[in-house]
Design a protein that fits this description.
Elements lengths: L14 E13 L4 E12 L6 E6 L3 E7 L8 E3 L8 E6 L10 E9 L7 E4 L11 E4 L20 E10 L3 E4 L2 E7 L6 E12 L6 E4 L2 E6 L2 E5 L4 H7 L3 H12 L8 E4 L8 E2 L4 E4 L12 H8 L8 E2 L5 H19 L2 H22 L24 H17 L2 H14 L4 E2 L1 H12 L5 H5 L3 H6 L10
Length: 463
Amino acid sequence: MGRVDSSSLSSPDKVITTNIKLTWAVDFAEKTIKGTAVLDIKTLEDSVTHLVLDTSNLTIHSVQDFETGQKLQFQLKETVKPYGQPLEIKLPLNTQKRGSVAQIAIEYVTSPDASALAWMAPEQTSGKKHPYLYSQCQPIHARSIMPCQDTPAVKVTYQANVTVPQELTALMSATRMGNELSPTDATQRVYKFEQNVPIPSYLFAVVVGALDSRQIGPRSSVWSEADIVEDAAMEFEDTEKMIAAAESIAGEYIWGHYDLLVLPPSFPFGGMENPCLTFVTPTLLAGDKSLANVIAHEIAHSWTGNFVTNLNWEHFWLNEGHTVYLERKIIAKLTDEKTRHFQAIGGWKDLINSVKTFGETHKFTQLIPPLEGSDPDDAFSSIPYEKGHTLLFYLETLVGGSEEMDGYLKHYVKKFAFKSITTDEWKDCFLSYFKNKVSADILDSIDWDAWFTKPGMPPVKPQ
């Protein structure tokens, strides 16, 4: 694999993680999560002596070989801003050769300042009685809640047992596997989860609070604090129609259930596409479904982003450009093609504003921005969303229209399912798919370099 992600200090080119099992205890008084992460690893080269993981503000208590109980030497190296501290673990001798596997158990505790976690006092919630916790791991904050290879280049399955105060509910970006009173403390309840589709670390998510739910479809429920759950159920009652529309374009929905969580007002995003449990802002509760395109966007991520993923954050447009494109196709299926074009015009205006904000020669206005030494959060804007969408809309005008791109989208998702890819891989796939469907002159006319690496507005404004 080689070092493919400048935003990660880990070494998945030498040793790769395939599964993580988490045992967590959520402590609202201390604002910490205490627990153990058991990482299933596979060694990819001979003579590999160390496993290197990403961490940020974690206190590591012990590391051991899970099967033998052997204590393993470890060292938290110096902080590299803004990426955290690499955790270097000496591998057991029998895990240092290519093809060998092991389970490494790491006991640790998070910091009250963990960048992925938002701890809310009861008065900050609408119910005013209970505290609330939610996470936001994208792009590089999963390392603040668990030692991991915190790069979208690595995908893992996971299981979790999460202990919380018994009057609260825990949810994760995974399938709920039931809950029970803690066998050692009657004031605590243990919630169990499994995610059997491999996901990148940025899609790990947890929420703990006084949550209620309503079923809104055959595979969907909405969760929130009790006072808004009925409003949320009405606002999002078209969720199943959107999932079905997306399936007709991109293929089968492979995640089982699709739930929505309406967070408290402090949640700083419109939505976050955590698998099985999309996080959304309560500002979407307009009463008339007028902001439903945000739900269509997060649903679309189930294919573009969560299933086929950018290899690193320089290729973020692969996640977001495709998802905006698919989102608007979903809305068109439920309304009409004019609505899709109207939304594209609005997106172009957002793009103009983002380019003006950065300056039209700024590197973060490139579709593939160079991020070496930069915090990916600093590059966040509408550019990967709208410049990416504009490229796909432009290509649609070249290859014969919307239906031709539908066929390509389904092919693209199927070809790269479960994988993390680069723009070059996407481009090769696109050209290969249309090679015998579109004239060579049309494909040769695309100025890929201008689209990918030139800053500022796109080289072409599609009609």
